[in-house]
Amino acid sequence: MNYPIGTPGQPWGDAEKAAWRARQQARRSYADDVLSRIEGLRAHTDVVAYGSIDCEADGAFPVYALRSKAWDEALPCALVTGGVHGYETSGVHGALDFVESHLADYDGRINVLVAPCVSPWAYERIQRWNRRALDPNRSFISDSPCDESAALMRLVAPMAGRFLVHIDLHETTDSDESEFRPAKAARDGQPFEPDTIPDGFYLCGDSADPQAGFQQAVIAAVATVTHIAPPDAKNEIIGSPVVAHGVINYDYRALGLCAGVTDARYRTTTEVYPDSPRATPAECNAAQVAAVRAALDYALAAGG
């Protein structure tokens, strides 16, 4: 399968990236879908502006985090991130649903910081990468070249050592196989190797600190909302061994993943499957909310 941009076997240069960028048209509104909801939450949360993503001809996108109104410096902190990949819709709206319906439930127990849409340009274009064809979720590294990742890193840096839990909300979609993996192979000058898309929810834990009990608590909570992805014939999910029901592990730091941006003891990355015939958009959002609540509840019960 040859991607329509570039020459097979040759990594993209500036011309190919410009051609790719020209294909990316806004298909929904960050202002209407996300900023309007954040405005509606100002009376109930503290809204923190933590940067502006300069997308040149496409404009500048302000990015915001929402935090507990009853923030207490004596309490541990939790981080919830969504929209690191802008096309993963339930990550954004699940995070906002959690803030609207459940954030106040944790007042006096844990401070919660929610960055609901880390990549607004990509949200509008239903795209995985930022406008420079960089994957934000491989860019949480020192001197990050990705503005979206760097902005979030600056936001959390002053709270280093205070996070007890971090849950990063993602999706795995059919378009991963039809568009994003072929585009990545073309960009990097590599052959495209087809894979399968798991039907259901799963988690990516950290291979350096798996916290198996924590991962299974989140899986158990989500299983009451939507179905959990089974392993494939090789006992894998997206090419990684299944280590427990619905759980695989990645090396967060080595891969530059958002879930490695803090030293929180309890960390996980959710993966919802919105293209399943067995799930609705509302169910996908609810699965993200259930995952956040389960992560917070487990961390509070287990302590640091």
TrEMBL record:
CDD domains: M14_REP34-like. Residues 26-304 form the Peptidase M14 domain. GO terms for molecular function: metallocarboxypeptidase activity; zinc ion binding. One of its GO terms (biological process) is proteolysis. InterPro entries: Peptidase_M14. Belongs to the peptidase M14 family. This is Peptidase. It comes from Arenimonas caeni.
